[in-house]
């Protein structure tokens, strides 16, 4: 309770990690409720034994939260819809135009499907084991290509140039580019179709933000923040 409470307050060990939106997080609430139920039952039984006249009230009180719990089920249903988009993301990965150029060890969704590699999905498409996804907007496919082909790396790019605002670069497979300070928003411009949604990359506390290209060529738009910055590579 101390750990989750401090997290909801927007800090962990007195280190700020977020804003007031953390107070609305539902994580671990169900565990606290489940562990509190026996104590609530014991307390209710003690009250009924002492004042039987209030027994109906004690029995009705737990039912007051039923409507809210039913409403929460609707939120769970919407959450399942979000999981459907995660499934489509995975099924689209082996069918992207640049999929065969990406490393087979690439994991499309390491958070929801750890260990699931792009090579396994490509083989599954060829054998018919991996089903086809539902039709997906071209913008979403371009954004997925960007997320799979451009990732943080430890490479050290070479020559640096000063930039102000958006900068377009065409990067080949194996290239790397870094931002001297701050963060950068990247948009992929495919050969045909609409551009991707911007994807923001942030530097860690200790390392320079360096992005590696694992498939190419990619035509990318870099928007660094602050606008007056240096791009290396």
Q: Strands, helices and their partners?
A:
Blueprint: H1 2-8, E1 11-12, E2 15-16, H2 29-50, H3 55-60, H4 66-92, H5 118-127, H6 138-149, E3 150-152, E4 160-164, E5 167-171, E6 176-179, E7 183-188, E8 199-202, E9 209-213, E10 218-225, E11 228-232
Antiparallel strand pairs: 1-2, 3-9, 4-11, 5-10, 6-9, 6-11, 7-8, 7-10
Tags for this model:
four-stranded antiparallel β-sheet; five-stranded antiparallel β-sheet; elongated; 6 helices; 11 strands
3D structure, described in words:
The protein has 233 residues and is α+β, with helices and mostly antiparallel strands. It is built from six helices and eleven strands. It has helices at residues 2-8, 29-50, 55-60, 66-92, 118-127, 138-149; strands spanning 11-12, 15-16, 150-152, 160-164, 167-171, 176-179, 183-188, 199-202, 209-213, 218-225, 228-232. Strands 3-9-6-11-4 form a five-stranded antiparallel beta sheet. The chain has a four-stranded antiparallel beta sheet with strand order 5-10-7-8. It has a two-stranded antiparallel ribbon with strand order 1-2. A hairpin with a 2-residue loop joins strand 1 and strand 2 (15-16). It is elongated.
Short overview:
With 233 residues, the chain is α+β, with helices and mostly antiparallel strands.
The largest β sheet comes out as:
5 strands, antiparallel
Compute the number of strand runs.
Answer: 11
Which percent band covers the strand fraction?
15-25%
Shape: elongated
In percent, how helical is the residue content? Answer: 25-40%
Order of helices and strands: HEEHHHHHEEEEEEEEE
What's the Cα radius of gyration?
Answer: 25 Å
Average per-residue pLDDT, rounded, comes to: 85
Number of helices: 6
Strand order of the largest sheet: 3-9-6-11-4
Give the low-confidence spans: none
The N- to C-terminal Cα distance equals 47 Å
Q: Tell me the structural class.
A: alpha+beta
């Amino acid at each position: 309770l101390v750990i989750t409470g401090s997290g909801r307050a927007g800090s962990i060990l007195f280190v700020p990690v977020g804003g007031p939106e953390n107070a609305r997080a539902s994580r671990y609430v169900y565990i606290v409720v489940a562990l509190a139920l026996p104590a609530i039952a014991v307390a209710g039984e003690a009250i009924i034994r002492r004042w039987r006249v209030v027994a109906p009230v004690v029995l009705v009180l737990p039912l007051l939260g039923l409507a809210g719990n039913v409403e929460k089920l609707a939120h769970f249903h919407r959450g399942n819809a979000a999981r459907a988009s995660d499934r489509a993301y995975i099924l689209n990965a082996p069918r992207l135009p640049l999929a065969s150029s990406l490393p087979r060890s690439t994991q499309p969704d390491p958070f929801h499907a750890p260990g699931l590699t792009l090579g396994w999905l490509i083989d599954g498409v060829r054998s018919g084991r991996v089903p086809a996804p539902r039709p997906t907007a071209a913008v979403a496919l371009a954004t997925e290509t960007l997320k799979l082909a451009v990732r943080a790396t430890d490479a050290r790019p070479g020559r640096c140039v000063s930039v102000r605002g958006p900068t377009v670069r065409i990067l080949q497979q194996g290239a790397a580019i870094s931002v001297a300070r701050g963060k950068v928003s990247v948009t992929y411009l495919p050969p045909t179709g609409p551009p991707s949604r911007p994807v923001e990359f942030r530097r860690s506390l200790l390392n320079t933000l360096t992005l590696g290209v694992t498939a190419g060529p990619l035509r990318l738009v870099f928007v660094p923040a602050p606008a007056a910055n240096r791009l290396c590579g």
